[in-house]
C-alpha cells in the first residue's frame, strides 16, 4: 500500500493554488437569524451547506466549528458529516475545529473519530488541546502520521484569557506555549516544505517574545484565528508572524459568513479577503 501524502504537503499545494485563507463554518444562532433562518436543525443545514458549497471552491481550507453542530445533537453531527464531504467535493481541505484532548486511551478514540478516513467525521486535520500534557496527544500524532492527516495544537490562542496558562513559566525558563512549539518542532523535523503538525496562534496576540521561549520557526503551519471579527488585521498578521507569515493560515468565520446568504456574495467576501492577504508572505 502506498503511503498517504502528508497533510503538510497537501496544505502547501492548496495554499500555493488558492491562497492561505481558512474560512470558518460557524453556524452561530445570530447568523442563522441574520440569514432569515430559524435557529433549528433545518436552519443549521441550510446555513452550513450553503456556506460550504459557496466557499469550498475558492478557499484552501474550510474550518467547521464542531460546537455549533453538536448543539443540535446527533442530527447536527450528521449535518457536520455532510459539510465535511461537501467541502472536500469542492476541493477544500477540512480542518475540524474540535479542540479535543484527554488521557491517552480516550485521545485514541477521538483521533479515530476525526482522523481515520474510515470514520464519517474524518477530516484532513483537527485542532487539539495539549493542556493534559503534550504526551497525551501521542495517539493523535500517531494516527495523523498513519493516515496523512494534520493537527493544530493550541499554543497562543486568540482569546484574552489564554495568557494566564500559555505565558506561564515552566522548568528551563520557557513559557508553556514555547514548550508546545518545541514539541511541534521535533515532530516536524526534516519535513518539506513544512510538516503536518501546526500550532494555533491568534491574530490578536501581542508579539510573541523570544524571552518567553516562543520561537515560531517550528517547521509547521500556523492557524491564526481572530482575524476579522475578533479584530485581527493584515497588519497584525505581519507584526505577529514576521518571517513565519508564509506558513500562516489566517482564519475568519463570522466576518465572511455575514456576507450570506447569497452564495455569490459569500464567495466574493472570501475572494476579497484572499486578495487582501496577497502581500502577506
Ligand atoms: O484561539 C482560537 C482558537 C480557535 N478559535 C475558533 O476560531 C473561530 C473564530 O471565529 P470568528 O468568527 O472569526 O471570530 C471560532 O470557531 C473559534 O472557536 C478562536 O477564535 N481562537
TrEMBL record:
InterPro entries in the record: Aldolase_TIM (IPR013785), OMPdecase_type-2 (IPR011995), OMPdeCOase_dom (IPR001754), RibuloseP-bd_barrel (IPR011060)
Keywords, in A-Z order: Decarboxylase, Lyase, Pyrimidine biosynthesis
Catalytic activity, EC: 4.1.1.23
Cited Pfam families: OMPdecase
Catalysed reaction, written as an equation: orotidine 5'-phosphate + H(+) = UMP + CO2
UniProt-listed SMART domains: OMPdecase
Secreted recorded as keyword: no
Orotidine 5'-phosphate decarboxylase domain ranges (all copies): 20-269
Catalytic site positions: 99
Catalytic class of the enzyme: lyase
Pathway participation: Pyrimidine metabolism; UMP biosynthesis via de novo pathway; UMP from orotate: step 2/2
CDD domains noted in UniProt: OMP_decarboxylase_like (cd04725)
Family: Belongs to the OMP decarboxylase family. Type 2 subfamily.
This protein's name: Orotidine 5'-phosphate decarboxylase
Annotated organism of origin: Nocardioides fonticola
Amino acid at each position: 500500500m502506498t503511503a498517504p501524502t502528508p497533510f503538510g504537503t497537501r496544505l502547501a499545494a492548496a495554499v500555493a493554488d488558492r491562497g492561505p485563507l481558512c474560512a470558518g463554518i460557524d453556524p452561530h444562532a445570530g447568523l442563522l437569524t441574520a440569514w432569515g433562518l430559524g435557529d433549528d436543525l433545518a436552519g443549521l443545514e441550510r446555513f452550513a451547506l450553503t456556506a460550504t458549497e459557496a466557499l469550498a471552491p475558492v478557499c484552501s481550507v474550510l474550518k467547521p466549528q464542531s460546537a455549533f453542530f453538536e448543539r443540535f445533537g446527533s442530527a447536527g453531527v450528521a449535518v457536520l458529516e455532510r459539510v465535511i464531504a461537501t467541502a472536500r467535493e469542492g476541493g477544500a481541505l477540512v480542518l475540524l475545529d474540535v479542540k479535543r484532548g484527554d488521557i491517552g486511551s480516550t485521545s485514541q478514540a477521538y483521533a479515530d473519530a476525526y482522523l481515520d478516513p474510515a470514520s464519517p467525521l474524518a477530516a484532513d486535520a483537527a485542532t487539539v488541546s495539549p493542556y493534559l500534557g503534550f504526551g497525551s496527544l501521542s495517539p493523535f500524532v500517531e494516527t495523523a502520521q498513519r493516515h496523512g492527516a494534520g493537527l493544530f495544537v493550541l499554543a497562543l490562542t486568540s482569546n484574552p484569557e489564554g495568557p494566564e496558562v500559555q505565558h506561564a513559566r515552566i522548568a528551563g525558563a520557557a513559557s508553556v506555549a514555547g514548550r508546545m512549539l518545541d514539541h511541534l518542532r521535533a515532530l516536524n523535523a526534516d519535513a518539506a516544505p513544512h510538516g503536518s503538525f501546526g500550532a494555533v496562534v491568534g491574530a490578536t496576540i501581542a508579539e510573541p517574545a523570544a524571552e518567553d521561549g516562543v520561537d515560531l520557526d517550528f517547521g509547521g503551519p500556523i492557524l491564526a484565528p481572530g482575524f476579522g471579527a475578533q479584530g485581527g488585521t493584515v497588519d497584525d498578521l505581519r507584526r505577529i508572524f514576521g518571517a513565519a507569515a508564509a506558513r500562516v493560515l489566517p482564519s475568519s468565520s463570522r466576518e465572511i459568513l455575514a456576507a450570506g446568504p447569497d452564495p455569490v456574495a459569500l464567495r466574493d467576501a472570501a475572494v476579497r479577503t484572499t486578495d487582501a492577504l496577497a502581500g502577506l508572505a
